[in-house]
């Protein structure tokens, strides 16, 4: 049995009854059996003494004002430059969210608004799905539709996206969706998977429930024929294999003049007008595909350093005319060495090297992996990563030999990310 309403075993029905009884003091009138079973399926039909719904979700929704979040107007930089959007539906009637992570200027986004507003934007879109899109899909198809499908486009996803604060932000997004919107995902069609995908998958999977992992289809780069088995072409922009274009010929359907978008907007406009959830700033950007892109300097906050949480950073002092070498053991090929650091008042030299012996070596005796250069880490925090093909002892080297008068304090966060050795997902090249 699936654990869905109308397809439950006697044991599953008993679990559902117990859950409802345990949570009756917080239950709302609109929490029907579809709502309750989503929580159970999201936890593999396990019932806890203190269900996550009761001990965590109610408190979280109050903290984030999730019930009224559609009254919030997201910052302009998030609306204009966080890539993605709802567009069309798949053959199961699930609305489609197109996520274009590779085109996000996430570092600039991080420094152009507060972190919580980026996370709040994801909550906004989730609430929009449940309050408006899904109810209209139910009316349109005459049956219950509880989930949304995702096209996760990884085109241009690279090492720059492994910046530690950005990774933390994205994993927090995953945690929010899994912990507070369980069983929301219909299918995830992951396309244009890069070589780096196993590393990124290894980062993401601890935050995903087993049921969520099973819904991910990896379609690689030659995906268009395959994806049309699940989505009709009139429900997709041309760029992703469909036949929808904007009136000006745009293949991404970014325009507010899109025919598909206009159809959905008519529905949403009527729904919002009669709703008890006023959305004065609700606009068509929630129904078109935003492509992200480079964020203009005008959005940059002045105090970049104040946005960085240094609680997990380590510190070292690089004496004048000296260097500091930090050793990291890499045991598996295709691991990723990742770094972030900043200095207080002056620049610093930085490079990555591979030892050729087990003993400390001079720069010229080691293999240069990342060229040593002076960086302005006192102005903008420096970040980066490099994929390691050969196991061994690697050195992150801070160089202050060019300064004979000033020592440098460096705050740094450096770690080694192993590849995904379990091969749980295989990239399918069609």
UniProtKB/TrEMBL annotation:
InterPro entries under this entry? CRAL-TRIO_dom (IPR001251), CRAL-TRIO_dom_sf (IPR036865), CRAL/TRIO_N_dom_sf (IPR036273), GOLD_dom (IPR009038), GOLD_dom_sf (IPR036598), SEC14/CRAL-TRIO_domain (IPR051064)
What region holds the GOLD domain?
Answer: 301-416
Report which superkingdom the organism of origin falls in: Eukaryota
SMART domains with a match to the protein in the record: SEC14
Example of a GO cellular component annotation carried by this entry: cytoplasm
- CRAL-TRIO domain span: 74-248
Which SUPFAM superfamilies does the entry link to? CRAL/TRIO domain, CRAL/TRIO N-terminal domain, Supernatant protein factor (SPF), C-terminal domain
Name of protein:
SEC14-like protein 2
Which species expresses this protein natively?
A: Paralvinella palmiformis
């Amino acid at each position: 049995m699936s654990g869905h309403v109308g397809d439950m075993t006697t044991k599953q029905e008993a679990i559902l009854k117990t859950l409802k009884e345990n949570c009756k003091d917080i239950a709302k009138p609109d929490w029907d059996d579809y709502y309750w079973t989503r929580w159970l399926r999201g936890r593999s039909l396990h019932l806890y003494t203190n269900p996550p719904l009761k001990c965590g979700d109610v408190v979280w929704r109050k903290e984030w004002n999730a019930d009224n979040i559609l009254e919030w107007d997201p910052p302009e930089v998030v609306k204009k430059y966080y890539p993605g959007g709802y567009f069309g539906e798949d053959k199961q009637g699930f609305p489609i969210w197109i996520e274009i992570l590779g085109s996000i200027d996430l570092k600039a986004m991080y420094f152009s608004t507060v972190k919580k507003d980026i996370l709040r934007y994801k909550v906004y879109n989730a609430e929009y799905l449940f309050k408006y899109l899904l109810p209209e899909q139910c009316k349109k198809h005459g049956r219950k539709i509880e989930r949304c499908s995702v096209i996760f486009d990884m085109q241009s996803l690279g090492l720059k996206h492994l910046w530690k604060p950005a990774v933390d932000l994205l994993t927090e997004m995953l945690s929010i969706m899994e912990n507070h919107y369980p069983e929301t995902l219909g299918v995830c069609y992951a396309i244009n998977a890069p070589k780096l995908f196993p590393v990124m998958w290894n980062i993401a999977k601890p935050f995903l429930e087993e049921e969520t992992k099973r819904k991910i289809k990896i379609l690689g780069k030659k995906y268009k024929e395959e994806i049309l088995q699940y989505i009709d072409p009139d429900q997709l922009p041309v760029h992703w294999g469909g036949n929808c274009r904007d009136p000006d010929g745009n293949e991404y359907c970014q325009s507010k003049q899109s025919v598909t978008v206009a159809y959905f907007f008519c529905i949403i406009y009527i729904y919002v007008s009669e709703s008890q959830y006023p959305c004065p700033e609700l606009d068509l950007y929630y129904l078109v595909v935003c492509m992200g892109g480079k964020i203009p300097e005008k959005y940059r906050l002045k105090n970049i350093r104040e946005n960085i949480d240094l609680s997990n950073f380590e510190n070292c002092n690089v004496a004048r005319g000296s260097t500091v070498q930090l050793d990291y053991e890499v045991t598996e090929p295709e691991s990723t060495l990742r770094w972030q650091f900043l200095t207080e008042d002056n620049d610093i030299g930085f490079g990555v090297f591979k030892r050729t012996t087990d003993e400390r070596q001079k720069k010229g005796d080691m293999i240069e992996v990342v060229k040593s250069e002076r960086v302005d880490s006192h102005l903008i925090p420096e970040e980066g990563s490099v994929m390691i093909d050969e196991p061994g002892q690697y050195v992150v080297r801070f160089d202050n030999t060019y300064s004979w008068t000033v020592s440098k304090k460096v705050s740094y966060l450096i770690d080694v990310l192993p590849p995904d050795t379990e091969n749980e997902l295989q990239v399918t090249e069609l």
